[in-house]
Amino acid sequence: MTTSDSSFAQCPTRPPGPESCGAEDWLAFLGHRWNAMILWHLSEGSLRYGALQDRLPGISPKVLSERLAGLVARGLVTRQEVRAAPPEVHYALTQKGIELREIIAQLYEWAENSEA
Amino acid sequence: MTTSDSSFAQCPTRPPGPESCGAEDWLAFLGHRWNAMILWHLSEGSLRYGALQDRLPGISPKVLSERLAGLVARGLVTRQEVRAAPPEVHYALTQKGIELREIIAQLYEWAENSEA
DNA sequence: CTCATCACTCACCAAACGGGAAGCGCCATG
DNA sequence: CATGGCGCTTCCCGTTTGGTGAGTGATGAG
User: Fold this and answer.
1) What is the pLDDT of residue A9?
2) Structural domain tally of chain A?
3) Do A22 and B58 make contact, defined as CB atoms within 8 angstroms?
């Protein structure tokens, strides 16, 4: 079965606003550069701001902050400040974030196979 | 299991270019406005240019052309011209397109459940 | 006291993107 | 011969985006 018509069925003509369909909204978010990458790197476990910067060569602090804020706002990532000598900020996936990462992993696997 | 580390594993530091990881590339594409929507509408079956325009209120001919060209270029959609009285152009999903739509459907279902 | 670190934030600016309007080529019909 | 429909394409222009570089605040080390 083709997942039948139960999927996008409720957002056929994209009613009023700009983004109405849930899936499209998430796709737009994930398609925004770095977001999926950050999600991926955090799946290793909690990481600090600086550690993320190191793993994402080319990202500017401004953009990294923006993306992290977006991920937190969508409930995919938690932000935890540690008031220490040099302050530490730890970012980690939420359950929701883990679930979403799973779906991205599926896409990744499909891409691998279809590319060949 | 969390799909373990077999997924993005090969694109850890995004080597040289702009988009290197397969999944991120596809996400960027799908996240581009209208693309997923077009895919969705085509899953009903073959549609003509004008029919797509009707189903995607707000899209301009320019953007629809661009998106369709992108979908064709990625092998998700076929374009078939019919030289008739008023010319007809039919767009339909390829096998690859159908597979990708499946994955989007999964995302959609996840979004539905997690939103609640 | 000075300096360095961490995690940002702010102001500025060029480049890219995206939408709207209008035009085009082809053919059939009136 | 003029008109109309279909499927685009081209041009223009405002908005957004992302990068850069500098600055901030708290704290501990030298």
Assistant:
1) 42
2) 1
3) no
